[in-house]
């Protein structure tokens, strides 16, 4: 199922067109596009229409997550276990800088090691998928 354009726009703005695993930025990817990665597989209870379930990664790392790289993605919150009933909003994602973030379904990120309120991502209608 295709991610709706407004949601994809919020995802791109939140993650700044950067692979949240390794930090490489688009367009410096040289053949590895940035893709939405589902933290919890849709067949395992994940929702395609929930921003907390999605994170941008380069296609190289997305492929590694699918082909066998399992432990570190689980530890860093890029994977949420199949039978985990906890909301993705409550599973920290540790990005390429080592910073823990709580991702919300509103398109915000809250730094996981502080009490800073979430920052709303501005609506940028000039970007199109």
UniProtKB/TrEMBL annotation:
Q: What lineage is on file?
A: Bacteria, Bacillati, Actinomycetota, Actinomycetes, Micrococcales
Q: Where is this region: Disordered?
A: 107-129
Q: What is the organism of origin for this protein?
A: Brevibacterium celere
Name the record gives this protein? HNH endonuclease
């Amino acid at each position: 199922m295709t991610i709706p354009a407004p949601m994809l726009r919020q995802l791109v703005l939140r993650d700044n067109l950067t692979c949240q695993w390794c930090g490489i930025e688009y367009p410096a990817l040289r053949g590895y596009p940035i893709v939405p990665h589902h933290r919890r597989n849709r067949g395992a209870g994940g929702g395609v229409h929930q921003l907390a379930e999605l994170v941008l990664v380069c296609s190289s790392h997305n492929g590694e997550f699918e082909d066998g790289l399992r432990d570190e993605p689980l530890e860093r919150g890029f994977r949420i276990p199949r039978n985990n009933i906890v909301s993705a909003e409550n599973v920290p994602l540790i990005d390429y800088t080592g910073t823990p973030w709580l991702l919300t379904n509103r398109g915000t990120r809250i730094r996981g090691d502080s009490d800073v309120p979430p920052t709303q991502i501005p609506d940028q209608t000039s970007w199109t998928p």
